[in-house]
Amino acid sequence: MPKGIEEDIPTGIRIFERKHMLAILFFVHSRGGCTRMELYNGVANNDRMPDKLGVLEEAGLITQHIDRNTRAVRIEMTDVGMEAMGHLLEVDRLIEQP
After folding, report:
1. Distance (Å, rounded) from C-alpha 18 to C-alpha 15?
2. What is the pLDDT of residues 34-82, one digit of tens each?
3. Which fold has domain 5-96?
4. SS3 at position 11
5. Which of 6, 11, 47, 50 is the most buried (most CB within 10 A)?
6. How large is the angle between the packed helices 79-96 and 21-31, nearest 10 degrees?
7. What is the pTM assigned to this prediction?
């Protein structure tokens, strides 16, 4: 039986196949962190967003915590997330080169 393309994609990269995953990372990165509400308003407001944030957090790319003053959930990039964004931005630069 031939090997499917899904078997060739590394496990860590598969999280980016889900809708909005890259948009979430770019949004959080470009703002130096944000609240969930800002993210929902800026990227997408659907019932799967908390699950997607959970996947990114489990992967070590973001953290979520409650701001003690506003009680809003804040989303921040981790060091791993920042490093991953550096690589993603490099890929973008390579693709955009004339």
Report:
1. 6
2. 999 999 999 998 889 999 999 999 999 999 999 999 999 999 999 999 9
3. Arc Repressor Mutant, subunit A (1.10.10)
4. helix
5. 50
6. 110
7. 0.86
Q: Decide: helix, strand or coil at residue 39.
A: helix
Strand ranges in the chain using DSSP code E only, listed in sequence order: 34-35, 62-66, 73-77
Q: What is the mean pLDDT of residues 17-46?
A: 94
Token pair of 57, please?
């957090």
**Per-residue pLDDT reduced to its tens digit, 6-16:** 677 777 888 88
> Rounded to 10 degrees, what is the CA torsion of 37, 20, 97, 32?
30
For 4, 25, 53, 83, the CA distances from 21, given in Å and listed in that order, are 23, 6, 8, 16
Structure tokens of 96?
């955009």
- d(C-alpha 91, C-alpha 11), whole Å: 19
Distance CA 37, CA 10 (A): 32
The predicted pLDDT at position 3 comes to 62
